[in-house]
Design goal:
Elements (H helix, E strand, L loop, with lengths): L2 H13 L2 E2 H10 L2 H4 L4 H13 L3 E6 L8 E6 L1 H16 L6 H9 L5 H31 L9 H27 L24
Antiparallel strand pairs: 1-3, 2-3
Helix pairs in contact: 1-4, 1-5, 1-6, 2-4, 5-6, 5-7, 7-8
Protein name: PadR family transcriptional regulator
Organism: Pelagibacterium flavum
Pfam family, one: PadR
Length: 203
C-alpha cells in the first residue's frame, strides 16, 4: 500500500477535480517527499494507475488561448470507497515505515472524529500486543543463558522495547487529545481539511 497513492486519491477527492500539476505542487509544498517518499513521477504514475483501477475518472480538457490541453481527474464512487479503505489501514495497521501513518494523520480530518478514534483504538490494541510480545522476547533472552546470544544483541532488544513503548504511548496520547476535543473533523465542519469541497490550506 502506497502513501503516495493515498495522498493523490485524497487530494483529488478534496478538490472534486484536479490535474497532476496542481496535486504535485500541493504535495511538494507539504514536503511529502520527506515524510511519504512522494516524488513528482510517482504522483503521475499514481494518477494513471488509480484511473486504470477505476478509482479516478480521466477528463480531457481541450487547449485554450491561455492554456494547453491537460487531463483532469475526478474521484469515482469506487475511489471514495478505496480512500476510506486505505485510511482505515493507514490509521490502524502499524508498519515498519511511518509513511502510511503520516499520510493518515495529515488526512484524518476528512473522517468523522468517532471514526478516527475507533481506528486509532485498534492501532493502540495492536501496539499493546506488540509490547507484550517484546516483553516476552526479553524474558526469554534473559533466561536462555549467558552464552545463548551475543552480548551486543541486548542493544537490539533495548531498541525494540523503547521503540514499541514510544509508539504505544504516543498513540495513547493522541487518542486522549482527540477525545478532549482537539482538531476539527469532517462531521463537525464541512470545510475541514480534506473534505470534498473543503479546505486544502498549505501551511
Amino acid at each position: 500500500m502506497s502513501a503516495t497513492r493515498l495522498l493523490v486519491l485524497a487530494f483529488v477527492r478534496a478538490h472534486n477535480r484536479a490535474h497532476g500539476y496542481l496535486i504535485g505542487q500541493e504535495l511538494m509544498a507539504w514536503n511529502a517527499d520527506k515524510w511519504a517518499n512522494t516524488k513528482t513521477g510517482s504522483i503521475y504514475h499514481a494518477l494513471r494507475q488509480l484511473a486504470k483501477d477505476g478509482f479516478l475518472e480521466e477528463i480531457v480538457v481541450p487547449p485554450s488561448d491561455t492554456a494547453p490541453a491537460r487531463t483532469d481527474y475526478a474521484i469515482t464512487e469506487a475511489g471514495d470507497a478505496e480512500f476510506h479503505r486505505m485510511m482505515e489501514k493507514a490509521l490502524t495497521l502499524p508498519q515498519p515505515r511511518p509513511d502510511m501513518l503520516c499520510a493518515g494523520l495529515v488526512l484524518m480530518s476528512a473522517l468523522p472524529r468517532r471514526t478516527v478514534l475507533e481506528l486509532l483504538g485498534k492501532r493502540l490494541a495492536t501496539l499493546a500486543q506488540h509490547k507484550s510480545e517484546v516483553s516476552k522476547a526479553n524474558d526469554r533472552a534473559s533466561f536462555s543463558g549467558v552464552n545463548a546470544l551475543p552480548p551486543h544483541v541486548e542493544a537490539l532488544l533495548s531498541f525494540w522495547t523503547s521503540n514499541t513503548d514510544c509508539n504505544h504511548d504516543w498513540v495513547a496520547g493522541l487518542i486522549a487529545k482527540i477525545e478532549a476535543g482537539a482538531y476539527v473533523f469532517a462531521d463537525e465542519d464541512p470545510q475541514a481539511f480534506g473534505v470534498p469541497g473543503g479546505a486544502l490550506v498549505i501551511p
